[in-house]
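pls design
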């Protein structure tokens, strides 16, 4: 669990962790130089779980991606799960995802990188339900999480992820060029392992004014179109994902197939192509987002 100024909601999240039907876990918390009562809340909770809760502290702000990367590097467990400070987990989240990961390993072997992830229910500051499914709200289809689709649209939300140790061995260290920790490890699973979406909603994904990476409010159709076509953050995200693709090719180039390298090169250098050729080349290499609305916005801005 990565924390930063999360005192408002962290106790609810901690309670949901220790009410899981699967309890054979260790919780490692890394605080990113909080200035509120987050650490005091954690310490009160740790007093009742001294043998299962470890707390680490960043001396200066590192950001969510770097903090989760440091947490992942410390894990030596056969499985890991990322946890945000402000959500609420369904009581059987770990049990469901662990069972799924073990079934995959039975088929593909424990040396295969495995990532399981799920849908989420969106909740507000007072636990009010905002949307029953983030995937439906965002017009996402995670069952199309190929390497090409994942490069241009992160279909994985970190707080729903459970992965095996082989995924961390393959994916660490997470470089500075990574868009986010979940995005990078999702690419690793798509390229070298098994990436499996679960239809269940296992997390109450809290939306509030301080989200590091939130889902936003539920837009009406035309408002969603407007955002896709005009939001400056969209263009910034495309640039970051291209840099990530270039770094991924650099790190794993000697292990990727020729087709995978073509996909990565196409995306990282797509800005250099004329628009019509660019759209055709992206489409031909499977570099397209899932869902009609997402793809329209992508093609209009790419």
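designed seq:
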């Amino acid at each position: 669990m990565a924390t930063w100024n999360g005192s408002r909601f962290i106790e609810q999240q901690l309670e949901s962790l220790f009410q899981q039907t699967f309890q054979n876990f260790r919780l490692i918390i890394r605080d990113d130089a909080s200035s509120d009562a987050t650490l005091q809340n954690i310490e009160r909770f740790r007093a009742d779980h001294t043998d299962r809760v470890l707390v680490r502290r960043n001396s200066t702000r590192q950001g969510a991606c770097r903090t989760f990367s440091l947490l992942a590097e410390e894990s030596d467990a056969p499985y890991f799960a990322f946890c945000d400070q402000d959500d609420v987990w369904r009581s059987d989240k770990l049990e469901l995802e662990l069972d799924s990961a073990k079934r995959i390993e039975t088929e593909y072997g424990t040396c295969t990188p495995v990532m399981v992830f799920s849908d989420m229910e969106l909740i507000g500051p007072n636990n009010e339900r905002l949307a029953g499914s983030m995937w439906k709200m965002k017009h996402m289809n995670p069952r199309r999480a190929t390497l090409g689709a994942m490069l241009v649209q992160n279909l994985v939300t970190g707080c729903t992820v459970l992965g095996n140790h082989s995924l961390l061995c393959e994916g660490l260290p997470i470089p500075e060029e990574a868009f986010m920790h979940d995005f990078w490890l999702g690419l690793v699973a798509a390229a070298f392992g098994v990436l499996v979406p679960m239809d269940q909603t296992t997390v109450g994904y809290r939306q509030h004014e301080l989200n590091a990476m939130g889902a936003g409010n539920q837009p009406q159709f035309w408002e969603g179109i407007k955002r896709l076509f005009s939001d400056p953050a969209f263009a910034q995200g495309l640039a970051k994902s291209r840099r990530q693709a270039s770094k991924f090719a650099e790190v794993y180039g000697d292990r990727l197939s020729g087709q995978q390298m073509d996909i990565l090169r196409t995306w990282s250098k797509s800005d250099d192509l004329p628009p019509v050729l660019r759209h055709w080349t992206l489409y031909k290499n499977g570099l397209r987002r899932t869902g009609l609305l997402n793809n329209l916005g992508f093609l209009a801005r790419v």
